[in-house]
Write a structure and sequence with these properties.
Blueprint: H1 5-11, E1 17-20, H2 27-41, E2 47-52, H3 58-71, E3 75-81, H4 84-94, E4 98-101, E5 110-117, E6 121-122, H5 125-138, E7 150-152, H6 156-166, E8 175-180, H7 186-194, E9 200-205, H8 227-236, E10 240-244, E11 251-254, E12 260-261, H9 263-277, E13 282-286, H10 292-299, E14 303-307, H11 311-321, E15 325-327, E16 333-335, H12 344-356, H13 362-367, E17 373-374, E18 378-381, H14 385-395, E19 402-404, E20 409-414, E21 417-423, E22 429-436, H15 439-457
Parallel strand pairs: 2-3, 2-4, 3-7, 8-9, 8-10, 13-14, 13-15
Antiparallel strand pairs: 1-5, 4-5, 5-6, 10-11, 11-12, 15-16, 17-22, 18-22, 19-20, 20-21, 21-22
Length: 460
């Protein structure tokens, strides 16, 4: 059956499929997406692996997608409950395309699908999603042959064991590790990955799988959702805190004082370890990460390469350059040895190995990778983003040293001060990120940019 183009465009986005269950996404819709996906990959695969998160709607939607795949003659391998990086592992292990049912950090009413080709290669707007979208709009053609078969496979233990082969976790000093799963999939995967490491004592917080997220949103990028872990770390005397988003593909770090360690510092730390293992390697960083990242990579003999924001861009650039590692400001971390895919749990292992391999507390260790102050991402609701950006550029015209438009516009004001403005792909938002040598410099830039945008939008 054909579907209204506008409705499909609202759900099939640049990187994935996502919407409100029952209003924008239902079983009939995802069955058609499954059929279109099967047709997309039929020439390169005979089976599709499918996993899902703990949301109430996920099992039924995953089953409907499987029906759509099977109706096109492809087999289905179900791995059941999984984190997104566990699904990527299965795609790499089985060398077949995959589909993960999750809406990541979005509220309980949402669900969606992250798709990949064999070897966890991303499927985005330019690598198949547009074709899937167009076919769902036009109506997915039927298939004359017999339906595919379905099998079940548990890959959780294999996933945990594989991650531990990528990081040397032997000989670590004893560490007390607080883990906030946010009622998401880390409650499922952390015991399988971290549990077998003898040096670690895991202190679980919100490990109960619950897609209604009763304790806080599963989005640690929002500082409000780190508060419970920060308090828990201090109360329990933990050496480190780890917070994961709903599908557990992102990892955020808290030090022993309860202070957040920036994803840029984690990127630099992991990059330094990877460059010790692979001297002279290339490291990808998106343009929102701290300037400290390329500086530290270059100082350690590596080649830093700057990327647009977004996993499809990072993964493509990693494949193109042969990069050993990539990191984003949003705490997505990508590894060549993990099929160039992102894994928050693997990043956590790297941080734990670094912390446990020396005697300093995490706060002192992380300080070596923090060189600048940053604003974090600040969102403005705007009706006309280009007009706002033009007004900001006019305001700073006399101070600008350089600009580029790799992703939005990045403005270099010299002396370590810069900011980036870029529009959201899915919402009427303009996103600001700023960095300066100190907090006062960041506050000044944020205040000045905000004043211009507020004047444009008529905000009080």
């Amino acid at each position: 059956m054909s579907r209204p183009a506008a409705a499909v465009h609202r759900v099939i986005k640049a990187y994935d499929v996502r919407g409100v269950v029952g209003e924008q996404i239902d079983e009939a819709f995802v069955a058609e997406v499954g059929g279109a996906f099967a047709r997309l990959v039929r020439g390169e695969a005979s089976q599709v692996v499918i996993g899902h998160d703990m949301r109430e709607s996920s099992p039924a939607l995953a089953a409907a997608f499987a029906d759509g795949v099977r109706a096109q003659g492809l087999d289905v391998v179900r791995i059941g409950l999984a984190s997104t990086d566990q699904l990527y592992f299965a795609s790499g292990l089985l060398d077949c395309p995959g589909a993960m049912f999750t809406a990541s950090h979005n509220p309980a009413a949402y669900n969606g699908i992250k798709l990949c080709r064999a070897g966890a290669k991303p499927v985005g707007q330019d690598t198949g999603l547009a074709e899937i979208r167009d076919e769902v709009i036009a109506g997915v053609p039927g298939h004359d042959g017999p339906p595919g078969a379905v099998t079940d496979r548990d890959v959780l233990a294999d996933y945990g064991a594989f991650l531990r082969t990528l990081v040397d976790v032997t000989g670590l000093r004893p560490l007390r590790v607080a883990v906030d799963a946010g009622n998401g999939m880390a409650g499922h995967t952390a015991p399988a990955v971290l549990g077998p490491i003898e040096a670690l004592t895991m202190l679980p917080l919100y490990f109960e799988l619950d897609g209604s997220f009763p304790n806080h949103e599963a989005n640690p990028l929002d500082p409000a959702n780190l508060v419970d872990l920060q308090r828990f770390v201090v109360e329990t005397g933990a050496d480190i805190g780890l917070a994961f988003d709903g599908d557990a593909d992102r990892c955020f770090v808290v030090d022993e004082r309860g202070q957040a360690v920036s994803p840029s510092a984690v990127t630099a730390l992991v990059a330094a370890r990877e460059l010790t293992r692979v001297p002279g390697g290339t490291v990808i960083h998106n343009l929102i990460t701290s300037r400290a990242v390329p500086e530290l990579v270059a100082e350690r003999g590596g080649t830093p390469v700057r990327s647009r924001v977004g996993h499809s861009y990072i993964k493509a650039l990693m494949a193109e350059t042969g990069a050993i590692f990539g990191g984003e400001h949003s705490a997505h971390y990508y590894f060549r040895d993990f099929w160039c895919a992102d894994s928050g749990m693997l990043a956590a292992l790297y941080v734990l190995a670094e912390l446990g391999g020396q005697d300093r507390p995490l706060s002192e260790l992380a300080a070596g990778y923090e060189r600048y102050a940053a604003s974090g991402e600040i969102n403005f609701t705007v009706a006309d983003a280009p007009a706002c950006v033009a007004a900001v550029l006019e305001r700073f015209a006399a101070q600008i040293v350089d600009t580029d438009r790799l992703d939005g516009v990045t403005v270099d004001l010299g002396d370590g001060v810069w900011f980036n403005l870029r529009s959201s792909n899915t919402e009427p938002l303009l996103r600001l990120n700023a960095e300066a040598p100190d907090e006062a410099g960041v506050a000044r830039i944020v205040e000045q940019v905000s004043a211009v945008i507020d004047a444009q939008t008529g905000a009080p």
